[in-house]
């Protein structure tokens, strides 16, 4: 099962290494990771997506992350109400005869064209990972030349849903 | 040319009023109360050794960096204070890796300073450059590379704080050479407090959890306490003894927890685990409430997890929240300092359990299934005899250090400790070559104590160069080599699990250990008969100076009882019945 973990870390050299090293040492597979500054000077936020089968291992991961001196907090926000965004650049083969067709597909995704040449268009699409997957699936028949994805960045919504999922109550 | 090389490497010493970064480092160490350093100089730490020369702190020059760090571990184990180590960059630092990993797994406080090539050349594969931060990152509690000499007081303060608080562990501070030689215009005051927002260990246990634990214990029919090294780190042995005696709860130990309760205590069942006693292991399997204080449910203790303590409600007190629920599902987790948690339990008035029936049953197991071995024929010596004789002639009061393997298990089984903080062994990492240098560190920490290093013939040969320190300081360390001319535990596993194929485990060719000892001006003895052993052990252990006993024991003896890997604690083999 996919878990989305966010951590707030002190922005020191080597902190990314510490966190990814810990994941490697404890045998977690990282699907994506994003890092960037936060509103507080000297603090960074990391968001990573990991695949974990056993819920006990998620708890262990959070505790191990929390134990790092440079980690201020670590949270599993998978079951929380959260906003999640990822950006992808998708380079699609678009010869003139399909160009307008592709444009019409792209529109509902609010993807934007950021580069164009005779036969190739590069789209930028933003959204949650499912939306990006859907976009890529629709583009695939036309011929995708290249994809680059940033990985998910996320945080919890200010107002959490009042009804909680049963498995969350158990925790 | 010379000048330009110097400035490129940043080694030109700048004269400044407040001295150099290295001077500031030494002042910081003094501010932390450091009175002994174990180390080994080299190019990248020359400025630090120069500063030490001008402003001395007692420095023990080991003969290998691994010897230095194991000595620092021995020092830390018996004092509870951080052991301090200095080594140079590159090979100096990599030689420390085993000791750092050992201290990490056994939660020993260490502050390790490594030299580093100058910042200008870091990343260029300079002479004696190694990525110490990268290498030690997974085996330290925390590590630092100093980027500015003015940060040294803060970093030293934080390093000692992190190493010695919460769950203790090793901290590495990597100091590039240009930082050590950097001139300082003004002294930097030593900080009074640390500011580490991401590091706030919980000492005070949660009151409601303590209440629940007390109620569970009071209602228990067959309660059991498992005490680990966390009790020692928290200096909570007095509180533990009170809980055991006032509530009449029997107790067992992990390997590292030995000494938390005197070995002869009536409610002590002996060590539990792979080579634990019948009474201890069966008590775990049959108890209805298991109170784990400061142990981490290591696999050598638990055996097969699926069948571990199947009837027990588990209460786990640990200062490291990540240990709770890691291996064994926990019913009542208590994050906090072991001593404070035990104190809080003692203050509860939930009543006390009625355990007399349970204790009688355990006493019966202790009586009918004790530890034991068959005496050797024809005046031969059993490895257990060697430990028994050490016990006899030190009366259980010695500080005992060991390596890893058969002799370690025999020492754990047969050296009944009278005192806490007298047991120095490599548990988690299982490091051969640990015991002897650790004894040196322990002896420096406790100059008046009797320190006995019980080692195997193979492990001893991994760090025997430290005999130089016995010669140099006339340290009265007693070395007892339980010599079976083999890698005993490897040989035992090959016999049991690998069809008696003794692949690279028999080493009949050995040095003359007596001559070796004499080469270092250490009194050497060799014994091959039990009758002579009595005499030799009595004389050697009573002597004022260093001594080495090469005790030739039965080579084919195995450690029993045993829980084979993958088996539960109930499935013991080699249990002696009486």
UniProtKB/TrEMBL annotation, chain A:
GO MF term list: acetolactate synthase activity; acetolactate synthase regulator activity
Top-level division of the source organism's lineage: Bacteria
Catalytically driven reaction(s): 2 pyruvate + H(+) = (2S)-2-acetolactate + CO2
Pathway entry: Amino-acid biosynthesis; L-valine biosynthesis; L-valine from pyruvate: step 1/4; Amino-acid biosynthesis; L-isoleucine biosynthesis; L-isoleucine from 2-oxobutanoate: step 1/4
EC number: 2.2.1.6
GO CC field: cytosol
EC class of the enzyme, as a word: transferase
One GO term of the biological process aspect: L-valine biosynthetic process
Name used for this protein in its record: Acetolactate synthase small subunit
Family: Belongs to the acetolactate synthase small subunit family.
Annotated keywords: Amino-acid biosynthesis, Branched-chain amino acid biosynthesis, Transferase
InterPro entries: Acetalactate_synth_ssu, Acetolactate_synth/TF_NikR_C, Acetolactate_synth_ssu_C, ACT-like_dom_sf, ACT_dom, AHAS_ACT, AHAS_small-like_ACT
Assembly and binders: Dimer of large and small chains.
Function: Catalyzes the conversion of 2 pyruvate molecules into acetolactate in the first common step of the biosynthetic pathway of the branched-amino acids such as leucine, isoleucine, and valine.
PROSITE patterns the record matches: ACT
UniProtKB/TrEMBL annotation, chain B:
Cellular compartments per GO CC: acetolactate synthase complex
Residue span, Thiamine pyrophosphate enzyme TPP-binding domain: 403-551
Functional pathway: Amino-acid biosynthesis; L-isoleucine biosynthesis; L-isoleucine from 2-oxobutanoate: step 1/4; Amino-acid biosynthesis; L-valine biosynthesis; L-valine from pyruvate: step 1/4
Cofactor: Mg(2+); thiamine diphosphate
CDD domains associated with the record: TPP_AHAS (cd02015), TPP_PYR_POX_like (cd07035)
Top-level lineage group: Bacteria
EC number: 2.2.1.6
UniProt signal peptide: none
Entries under InterPro entries matching the protein: Acetolactate_synth_lsu (IPR012846), AHAS_TPP (IPR039368), DHS-like_NAD/FAD-binding_dom (IPR029035), THDP-binding (IPR029061), Thiamin_PyroP_enz_cen_dom (IPR012000), Thiamin_PyroP_enz_TPP-bd_dom (IPR012001), TPP-bd_CS (IPR000399), TPP_enz (IPR045229)
Catalyzed reaction equations: 2 pyruvate + H(+) = (2S)-2-acetolactate + CO2
UniProt keyword annotations, A-Z: Amino-acid biosynthesis, Branched-chain amino acid biosynthesis, Magnesium, Metal-binding, Thiamine pyrophosphate, Transferase
Domain Thiamine pyrophosphate enzyme N-terminal TPP-binding, first and last residues per copy: 20-133
Family matches, as Pfam families: TPP_enzyme_C, TPP_enzyme_M, TPP_enzyme_N
Stretches assigned to coiled coil: none
GO biological process: isoleucine biosynthetic process; L-valine biosynthetic process
Similarity annotation: Belongs to the TPP enzyme family.
Name of the molecule in the record: Acetolactate synthase
The species this protein was found in: Edaphobacillus lindanitolerans
